[in-house]
Design a protein that fits this description.
The protein is mostly helical. It contains seven helices and no strands. It folds into two domains: 9-57, no CATH class; 60-178, AhpD-like (Up-down Bundle). The protein has helices at residues 14-27, 32-37, 41-57, 63-77, 80-92, 114-127, 135-169. This is Carboxymuconolactone decarboxylase family protein.
Length: 189
C-alpha cells in the first residue's frame, strides 16, 4: 500500500476520471502512480502530458532499445512497479520478455546485441550514485545511435530514474500488470 493513498474513481475529480478512463482502456487498469498523483490534480495533469510527450519523442532511437534501458534502470533502482509495468509494455509490443530474466548478465549474454549492451551499460552508469558515465561512453553511444538517439536514450533513462525514485519514496509497488491481475487494485475500479 502506498504511503499516500490512491484516489478512487469515485472520489476523483473530472480530470482524473477522464485520465483513469483513458488509462484503463490503454493499460487494462489505472496505473497506481496516476491514482496517487490524483491527490494533486495539477501534478497528475503534468505527469500525464509529460509521459505522453516523452513517449512520442523517441524517434531516432530504436524503441526496443529505449524500453530495455528503461527496464534496466528500474531493475538497478529496485522499482517493482516500474519492472512490472515495463514488462507488460514490452510484452504488448511483441518483444521477447523471457530475456529480461537475463538482464543482469547483459554484458555477456548472447540474448543482447551490441547496441542493446551499450544502452544497458549507459543505464547502469546513469543510475549509479554518483553518476559514472564517461566521455568515451557518450562518444560511443553517439556513434551508435546518433546525437538525437543519444539524447533520447539519456532522457528516457533520466525519466526512469525520476519515476523509480519517486515511486520508491511513496512505496508504490508491483501492481500485477505482468500477471494480468492489475485490475484487482482496490478502489480503482
Amino acid at each position: 500500500m502506498p504511503r499516500i493513498p490512491a484516489v478512487s474513481a469515485r472520489e476523483a475529480g473530472l480530470q482524473a476520471k477522464l485520465l483513469y478512463r483513458v488509462a484503463r482502456r490503454r493499460f487494462g487498469a489505472v496505473p497506481e502512480p496516476f491514482a496517487v498523483l490524483a491527490n494533486h490534480p495539477a501534478l497528475l495533469r503534468t505527469s500525464a502530458i509529460h509521459e505522453l510527450l516523452a513517449e512520442k519523442a523517441v524517434r531516432a532511437l530504436p524503441k526496443h532499445v529505449a524500453d530495455l534501458a528503461v527496464y534496466r534502470t528500474a531493475v538497478r533502482l529496485g522499482c517493482s512497479w516500474c519492472i512490472d509495468f515495463g514488462t507488460m509494455l514490452q510484452k504488448h509490443q511483441g518483444l521477447d520478455i523471457d530475456r529480461l530474466k537475463n538482464i543482469d548478465d547483459y554484458a555477456t549474454s548472447p540474448l543482447f546485441d551490441r547496441a542493446e549492451r551499450l544502452a544497458l551499460a549507459y543505464a547502469d552508469a546513469m543510475s549509479d550514485t554518483p553518476v559514472s558515465v564517461t566521455s568515451e561512453q557518450v562518444a560511443e553511444l553517439e556513434r551508435e545511435f546518433g546525437r538525437r538517439g543519444l539524447l533520447e536514450l539519456t532522457y528516457q533513462i533520466g525519466l526512469e530514474n525520476q519515476r523509480a525514485r519517486m515511486f520508491g519514496a511513496l512505496d508504490i509497488t508491483d501492481q500485477g500488470f505482468t500477471s494480468g491481475e492489475a485490475c484487482r487494485v482496490p478502489g480503482l475500479g
